[in-house]
């Protein structure tokens, strides 16, 4: 069993970890079958930010919130940024949602129609302007572009169009701004997706240059994909930029991070630790990207933050010297046992201590429930339109 | 190569084949990301029926249309039935959609709340009343019920609740009415679905009795599932009642039947032919259950009907005597070659002849396009609310 | 966090748990690419039994060993049984391996050739005679039968042949003997397998009668299959008879139980506990069925026994009253949290205590390594033919 | 329907197509459960070549045979090359099988032991010497290297080791020699494979240089992978070097090419045609890589060659001008219909004509069966050791 007598380094690393929450996760969401609205859901970008700040207030580990454009478009992004800072959080990645206009029915930047491509590319440029206004460093690009039927469009032409739009956006980046390029196996396209896997995202990032890196969404892979391998590979190549954490049993289920396969999340975080990429200075962005269709949203996001923290704590507990020695000597069972020893350790007391030391409640969910925040937003957020898909 | 000199029996079987269209496929549909509305989409059950009748007018093979309750609820189902008949089609299966009320957030007939279960079960009974009023024989039951998270509810209790609701509906059946029980691997539930596979549906049908049979939706299986095996097995057990045809590459993509894996559709139809179940007297209902998110709806449905017909024609061309002899003698390559010989045959001329003989245009899609129907509905169906998910 | 102050009931249940090891796991094994032989591997059924007894000696939880016929065929099964008892273990399930004779190339009990079917069925009957001789209660039936190519044989005829062989074996059962019928998605058949899923096994067991139950091999499912659902369903139906535990990431990888998805193993064991089926009196047989291609075999099997015990301990820790209350009230997050609380608990100290109380070393693997057994078998088992696939 | 009045260009392209057969496919093969030996199977590299030449004699389309080292190692490769030429075939790609020595239990070029890595790398260099001796242009590299258990070895270190071995082999290439780098999702490694997907192979090829390209084995992907997308992407990047054709329903089933999903094979060949890569001058190598565990080997390989030809013929029939116009205008159904029109055409008469024009029998399988070759090899190849896995 792991020696837990000196946790100084582990706690220090955990203390530095930052997890970004996504504004849309606080809003209503659902499946194609139904969006079940919840009471108290935010109606404006400001209310989403207030909820994100609440998650940070109870966890101490979620100090930024990603925005989605056009959903979170406001007249004055400078004011929104100040509003967020006043609540204790920063504006995080800017996401470009080019999938809900009628024009995007057959694609955005890969659309066969040049006019639609122009519009979509302009949207990417607008998002960079929002980054300028908010101080956000990260342009997160996910494209729903793809085909539903064989023959529907030319697979290769679409790559050319994609490359062209990416080049234009890349050229517009300034300062330390960068592109986080996401991939996804399928949905909403059901036959071919224009960036279906990490290889495609990686190849485009290589073409673009050093400011373009890959974003791994843990729910966007084919069955059986070894995600930690991709993590290790991209770290070695210097091309891993971000994570969208969430859980899946089947497709892009977008369940709470750590809910479906906590062992996988641990293995991912182990590769992060082993690659020296947990350190905020390394630049990897750890984001949640999930939705809460039937469960209460704020506590679900708090739980997800905690799950990522617990996986990270276990990863930090791995006896890496012993592991390396066993691996080098080909001792299969011992190597595996050393990894599992860390995974099997109950790290919740460590994180509870960490919170207490930081002046937080050791149990963030219980503290949130006692806080009255949920009752307050249910009471106050009456009238107006609840935010949700498309809002 | 197959001898095509005498097609009498093949044509006779094809002439008898009936494919049912689903009312919701004519309406707007989409993914959780976006529903792209189309011009001319029906606004009422009557307009959906008119579109279904149009499909039948051009194919001669789609003489009934399945209704979905509550979407297609009308004040006078007798009048709706007469309206359909006047247009040349019958009311087909009655589908019970117990997934869009707020009450159904945690399930319908398996909900932990007894009141919600009562409401859902009453909905099933109402559907049987609609069957009484329309002369429909088939109660098609698909439940979205399931769990998103481990522990969310008790898997076994939910089976008890399911069984209870099914028993009550079954007891209410009269005349030649029957239950078609559908299963689905996942979606909208992302951890556990209460009827996830054919085995579960089959077991419940066995418990219910001979009026309960399984409905196979071709898009509702885990990757790698051999669907024609299920067809053969259920036919042997006398428990196959219906098909919901559609295509998938990944999940429940609901693409046009025959679009993703035409060879699989052929193998399915071969098992139907081999099992003597193509004959309408056998009682299998061949339905489409799909949606057309980016392509024009009526021609997509016409194409799907044609794809099912082509797969059936190929299945009918298999030289079954030769196949059986080769199988019995363990001649692997010859057996496979006999099957493939039929599959590789171009049967489109056979179906074109069949249509011409029936006074139809040999090319239903071209005929539809020339007919002016599309222009007419686009022009006429202005104002009102387009039907779609939830409408 | 779980209250661990009174573990009396948990320990009592753990103390009663019995896990059966498979004789073939001690022998050489591999993939189609290569079998890597290991030093000290048994050469005879007796040596396999000695290794199984060694696993039991260090774990106290593996008091029986499953045999595979013809691999473990001996002249005097009575003597073999006494030999096992002298070493402290019982002969467990008798497995019928009808897949390595030339005759079985196109199937055993479903072969198109009646003579081969006769031979295969006789093999099943022989296995029952071995059960008579050894006192084994369980006839475990797994058939590799299936097709590599569409059309190769008639899917439905093969079900008839399967049913006939099963009926004959079932009729031969005496005393408290029973059939455990296993299913598998694919391999070695690559297009269709004659018992591919639990539904097929269940349907045949229903036809046979109450002495026939389903055996779940955790590695034999399609991607995405919810195995604990199957456990819950079969328990409800009274038709779950046994488990073959092992781990998989992709196909039937046969890795150590608990190695690939320990959370899944916990969920499975939770359904066992919830269904009252952990009690040996219930009659479920918990077996390992795995192989150790690159790792040392005996410690890998000890580790697997421990993994099953740990998953069971966690399942026993679930606060079922609290869980039921939260489930009934539809509190999604709380229900999930109650389950996860048990999973996140480190139960290794509980099992260490249990072993100490039973006079065993708290760390079975370390104790095995210190014992000199491995060195002894490496030194002694020289000459002769190592057992392996087919041996 | 496609206009078949002028097939000059189609036939010309088909006439130029070359499909390479793999020497191991003529030998015995099987699953981990059993290798069923067949009468007449070759015992030596020369006999394998004789069988390959026989396939070419009846198809006119398989003028080269890939060798596998060490299985096909001979004392004098110059003599073997002349022997092949005398029979009418060339020596094709040289495959390096670094997976059957005891040393390779934990990997070859990625093994933690430097000595084993040296041995494996030397094997690659030896293979290049064999290329020098035979005139073969292609070094085909597939590595079974990977891990069975999390933690077993360091994922990232293994990439470093892999890169080092590849660099050394690459540096040794001379003349027009090149590397074809293959990837595979899993098997024989069951947790992580060192080159699991096209992205990994592509990244290593980029690092190596222009003489390194990716080889796509159609059976080596995760469920749901869109292979034609990979084809299109790699062609655009100039990094597609070869295909290993075979069929799969589940894992790496290695069934006859075109047997499981002929529509997929057609879509792949369409991307080849669309990318201008069918022309032999382009340099793509079209190879079979499959095995015939239960069916007769030579006719199975003839059938596979024919299946690839038929898929190619259909791909060539696509009306690309009409398709491009429909795609550009976003006419979804028409685009799909244009593709399907070609797929639904029966091209067997075209290929029969082509064979007749080339002086071949229009039905290669029937001609092979009549030829007496099978009877001859069964009679002659008696004594000696049949070649098979490891032989």
From TrEMBL, chains A, B, C, D:
Give any GO molecular function from the UniProt entry: L-rhamnose isomerase activity
Pfam families hit by this protein? RhaA (PF06134)
Q: What SUPFAM superfamilies has UniProt attached to this entry?
A: Xylose isomerase-like
Keyword check for ATP-binding, yes or no: no
Record's keyword terms, sorted? Cytoplasm, Isomerase, Manganese, Metal-binding, Rhamnose metabolism
Query: What are the GO BP annotations of this UniProt entry?
Result: L-lyxose metabolic process; rhamnose catabolic process
For whether the record's keyword set contains Plastid, the answer is no
NCBIfam families assigned to the protein according to its UniProt record, in alphabetical order: RhaI_grampos
Q: What is this protein's record name?
A: L-rhamnose isomerase / sugar isomerase
**Organism name:** Amycolatopsis saalfeldensis
Q: What lineage does the source organism belong to? A: Bacteria, Bacillati, Actinomycetota, Actinomycetes, Pseudonocardiales
């Amino acid at each position: 069993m792991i020696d837990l007598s000196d946790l100084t380094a582990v706690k220090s690393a955990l203390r530095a970890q930052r997890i970004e929450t996504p504004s849309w996760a606080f809003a209503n969401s659902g499946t194609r079958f139904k969006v079940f609205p919840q009471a108290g859901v935010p109606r404006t970008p400001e209310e989403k930010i207030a909820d994100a700040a609440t998650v940070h207030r109870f966890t101490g580990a979620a100090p930024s919130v990603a925005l989605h454009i056009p959903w979170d478009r406001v007249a004055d992004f400078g004011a929104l940024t100040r509003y967020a800072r006043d609540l204790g959080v920063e504006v995080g990645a800017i996401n470009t949602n080019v999938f809900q206009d009628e024009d995007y029915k057959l694609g955005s930047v890969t659309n066969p129609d040049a006019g639609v491509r122009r519009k979509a590319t302009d949207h990417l440029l607008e998002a960079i302007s929002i980054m300028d206004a908010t101080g956000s460093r990260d342009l997160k690009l996910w494209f729903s572009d793809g085909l539903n039927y064989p023959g529907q469009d030319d697979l290769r032409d679409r790559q050319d169009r994609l490359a062209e739009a990416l080049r234009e956006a890349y050229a517009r980046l300034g300062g330390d701004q960068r592109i986080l390029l996401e991939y996804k196996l399928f949905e909403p396209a059901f036959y071919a997706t224009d960036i279906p896997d990490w290889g495609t995202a990686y190849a485009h990032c290589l073409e673009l240059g050093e400011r373009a890196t890959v974003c791994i969404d843990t729910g966007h892979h084919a069955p059986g994909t070894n995600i930690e391998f991709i993590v290790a590979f991209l770290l070695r190549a210097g091309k891993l930029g971000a994570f969208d954490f969430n859980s899946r049993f089947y497709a892009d289920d977008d369940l709470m991070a750590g809910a479906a396969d906590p062992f996988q999340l641990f293995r991912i975080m182990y590769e992060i630790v082993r690659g020296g990429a947990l350190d905020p200075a390394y630049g990897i962005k750890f984001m949640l990207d999930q939705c809460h269709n039937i469960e209460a949203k704020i506590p679900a996001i708090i739980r997800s933050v905690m799950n990522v923290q617990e996986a990270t704590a276990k990863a930090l507990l791995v006896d890496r010297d012993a592991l390396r020695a066993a691996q080098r000597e080909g001792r299969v069972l011992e190597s595996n046992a050393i990894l599992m020893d860390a995974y099997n350790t109950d790290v919740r007391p460590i994180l509870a201590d960490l919170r207490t030391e930081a002046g937080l409640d050791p149990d963030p969910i219980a503290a949130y429930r006692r806080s009255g925040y949920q009752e307050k937003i249910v009471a106050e957020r009456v009238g107006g339109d609840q935010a949700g898909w498309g809002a």
